[in-house]
Amino acid sequence: MDADGKLYEYKVSITNQYNFNFNARFPSWEDNKARIERHWENIEGAWVGQRDGMKITDKAYVPTSILLPYLLEHFERTKGSQLNKNFRIQKFKELNNV
Q: Would you tell me how many other CB atoms lie within 10 Å of the CB of residue 60?
């Protein structure tokens, strides 16, 4: 939460792997979509950070207005049993340029 009370999701990694996991898929796309949308309802965006020991060496931010449509499109066209999207930090940063 920031000073203005806005909420953010954050993930920190030493392996440059950032997972956005929404559990097992429901049979219907509408139910999956609703679950993902509910998760992001009051969240401004997501921060990811690469760390070496206790030092953050790189970071990236993507607002929900960009991340949510990307995740929905990704999950709608994939068929795995889990709703899990893995990013490396560079690919996550590139979402801001799409």
A: 19
Which tokens sit at 70?
Answer: 């990307």
| pLDDT tens-digit map of 62-92 | 999 999 999 999 999 999 999 999 999 999 9
Residue type at 57 in one-letter notation: T
Report d(CA 4, CA 2) in Å as an integer. Answer: 5
**Do the strands 43-52 and 7-13 form a parallel or antiparallel pair, or are they unpaired?**
parallel
Q: How is 36-64 classified by DSSP, letter by letter?
A: HHHHHTTEEEEEEEEEETTEEEEEEEEEH
Residue linked to tokens 């097992």: 24
Domain ranges of the chain: 7-97
